[in-house]
Amino acid sequence: MAATQEVVPARSGVGAFVGGLGIGTLGGLIGLGGAEFRLPLLIGTFRFGPLEAVIVNKAMSLIVVVSALPFRTGTTSVDAIAGQWPVIVNLLAGSLLGAWVGASWATRLKSETLYRVIAVLLVAIAAVLMVGHGAEGSGRPMLVGPSQMIAGVAAGFVIGVVASLLGVAGGELLIPTLILLFGIDVKLAGSLSLAVSLPTMLVGFARYTRDSTFGVLLRNRAFVVTMAAGSIVGSFIGAMLLGVAPGSILLPALAAILLISAVKVWRHR
Q: CA-to-CA distance for 170 and 114, rounded, in angstroms?
């Protein structure tokens, strides 16, 4: 199987960089790592199997998140992030377990089933982008006290499962949760989502190392590094273009891309 993958012409270095560049630009425009757009590309264009695509996506998402953290401190101070440690711990209490469970499910599902699960989750993320991502929040949490903690753990668990199944950072779900459930400012929510995403992704990644499919990273290490580099450059470009592209047009267009990708992944064999 490995020999078949090596002769796929679409996995050229130029294709990997250009694909990463375009996806990173899309992600940068809306404050995400672009993993939700990268996954359908890995499956449809670069012909990775579903579990291989998730693992490659997870590896590159980790690289993008780690590179984004230092840049975020330029707009959101470390003290401001650290001051929200109860919120971070609350979400991590659920997301770390969810990440492990999600990765376990992914390694056990049949390829066809995993394709279908990925397609459904892409549709769900498209809906979240349209409904929740643009929310500015009122500064008031939806819940308080024990009910907020329980809801935070539950939300964290779901986000951890989704992040592991798709190999994404989970920001498209974390940011609306932080804004609506905890009343966090949208700019601070972006930084907090990274603080929650990184350990959550590491747990899911650790679980994937126990599966034989994890070797896909060694077999395609040049591809992974090249596409990750393109994603990082694209994220920077997208952030620079943020003030130019109107959100009223951008979000529906991105949601449409995810829906089209979901259809292609669903039909993939």
A: 18
* CA atoms of 26 and 34, how far apart (whole Å): 6
Contact 60, 23 (CB under 8 A): no
In this model, does residue 269 exceed pLDDT 60? Answer: no
Question: What are the pLDDT digits (tens) for 157-169?
Answer: 999 998 888 877 7
User: Which residues are CB-neighbours of 163 under 8 A, at least 6 positions away?
Assistant: 95, 98, 99, 102, 169, 170, 173, 197, 200, 201, 204
Sign of CA dihedral 228, 231, 237, 242: negative
Nearest CA among 186, 185, 213, 217 for reference residue 62: 217
- The one-character DSSP state at 75 is T
CA distance 215 to 66: 22
Residue by residue, DSSP assigns 91-110 as HHHHHHHHHHHHHHHHHHS-
Tokens of 162: 């989704």
Question: How far is the CA of 223 from the CAs of 13, 41, 43, 44, 80, in angstroms?
Answer: 6, 13, 14, 16, 37
Q: How many helices (H) and strands (E) does the chain have?
A: 13, 0
Q: At a CB cut-off of 8 Å and minimum separation 6, what does 191 contact?
A: 72, 73, 75, 76, 80, 81
Q: Residues 182-237: pLDDT tens digits?
A: 988 776 877 788 889 889 988 988 888 888 888 899 889 899 899 989 988 887 78
Q: Which residues 6+ apart lie within 8 Å of 267 measured at CB?
A: none
Residues 182, 186, 187, 192, Cα dihedral to 10° = 30
The count of other CB atoms within 10 Å of the CB of residue 74 is: 7
